[in-house]
Amino acid sequence: MRFLITGGAGFIGSNAARRLRAEGHDVLVLDSFLRPASRFNRAWLERLHPEIRFVEADVRDSAALDRVLAEHFDAVLHLAGQVAVTTSILDPLTDWEINALGTFRLLEALRKRHGGAPDRAPLLIYASTNKVYGHLSMGEVLRDGRWDFRDLPQGVSELEPLSFESPYGCSKGAADQYVVDYHRSFGLPTVALRQSCIYGPRQFGEEDQGWVAWFALAAVFGLPITFYGDGLQVRDLLWVDDLVGLYLAAAAAPGKVAGRAYNVGGGPAFRLSLKELMVLLEKKLGRKIPVGSAPTRLGDQPVFYCNVDRAAQDLGWRPRVPPSEGVDRLLAWILESRDEIGRFLARKGLSIATG
Ligand SMILES: NC(=O)c1ccc[n+]([C@@H]2O[C@H](COP(=O)([O-])OP(=O)(O)OC[C@H]3O[C@@H](n4cnc5c(N)ncnc54)[C@H](O)[C@@H]3O)[C@@H](O)[C@H]2O)c1
C-alpha cells in the first residue's frame, strides 16, 4: 500500500514510517520539522530506510497539500500537529491554525481531488485525542492509592459526550469533528482515532508532552522531575507499535471504519498513575528518584482510561504490550541512544554525561 504520513518525522510518525516501510509499504513523509526531535527522527529513518521519501511542508499550506496529493495514496495518516496543552495556552492562535485549520485544509485538499469519486479517495486516519472528552462528568474517587472513575470500570467509550477543554482540546476536537463529518457530508473515507497516552522509542519526551518518556529519560539522566498535581493522576498507556498495528488494521478495512471515531489506548488493564510509573522506574533502575511538586495544570484530567471495545469489535484489535514490558523497552532505547538524546537535550540547554 502507499501511505502519506503528515507529521511523519514526529514520535508516532517515525515509528509508523519505520514499521510500514519494513512491511514493504511505500511511505511519503510530510513534515514541517517544527519539533526539534523531528530532525533526529528523519536522520534515523534515512539511515534505516533510504527509500522513505520526505517533503518539508506545512499542513496549513494548501498548495503544498495539493502538490503532494496529486500522487495516489491508499491511506493518509494525519499526525502533524501542535501537541502540547501548555503551548496551546501560550499561543492559542498557532495551535488552532495547525490543528484545526491544518486538518481542515487537508480535508479540503482531499475533497478537491476526490470529491467526484470519494470511494477512490485514500482513507484519512486522524490522530485525535482523548482530550475531546474534557473533564468527565461521572466523578472520580481515590481508590487503591490512585484516581479512578466512580463507576466506569471499562473506561470511557465513544458514547461519552464531547466536551472540549483547553485550546488544544478545542483545536483537536474541532478537527476530529470535521474529519468525521467529511464522511457524512462528502462521502470521503475518514476516521478519527481518539488516542490516549502513547509511549515508546523516538519520543524525546518533554516536561509538557510525552510524560512517560520524559519521566524515564529524566530519571535515567538525573534531570529534575515535577508532579503537577498529586501524582495520583491515572492514564492508560499504549505502546506505540500497538497503535501502528491499529493504523494498519484500519487502512486495510476502510469500509468498516469510515465515518467512525474510536477510542484508542491501553484500556483499563494498562493504566498507571504518575507515582506508579516512578515506582516502576525506581525498581528497574535500582535507585530512588527525587520528585518535586507543583499545582495541577489546566486541562489535566485526574483520571482517564478508555474502553477499546469498538476497535476490538470492528478490527479485532487489542493493546498487547503491558506497561511493565513497555517501560523496559523504553529504558533500553534511552540507554542505547544516550549520545543522540544528549545532543537533543543540549539543544535545549540541558546537559548529561554522554559516552
Ligand atoms: N503522543 C501521544 O501520546 C498522543 C496522544 C493523543 C494524540 N496525539 C496526536 O498524535 C499526533 C502525533 O503526536 P506525536 O506524539 O508523534 O507528536 P510529535 O510532536 O512527535 O509529532 C508531530 C509532528 O508534526 C510535525 N508538525 C507540527 N506542525 C506541523 C505543521 N504545521 N505541518 C507539518 N508538520 C507539522 C512536527 O514537526 C512533528 O514531527 C499529534 O497530532 C498529536 O496531537 C498524540
Bound molecules: nicotinamide-adenine-dinucleotide
| Average pLDDT reading | 95
Task: Tell me the overall shape.
Answer: globular
Structural class: alpha/beta
H-E string: EHEHEHEHHEEEHEEHEEHHEEHEEHHH
Q: What is the tally of beta strands?
A: 15
CATH topology: Rossmann fold
Rounded Rg: 19 Å
CATH architecture descriptor: 3-Layer(aba) Sandwich
> CATH superfamily, called what?
NAD(P)-binding Rossmann-like Domain
Give the fraction of residues assigned to helices.
40-55%
| Biggest sheet features | 7 strands, parallel
**CATH hierarchy class name:** Alpha Beta
Q: How widely separated are the two ends?
A: 41 Å
The overall number of domains is 1
Unreliable parts = none
Estimate the strand proportion.
15-25%
Individual helix count:
13
* Strand line-up across the major sheet: 3-2-1-4-5-8-12
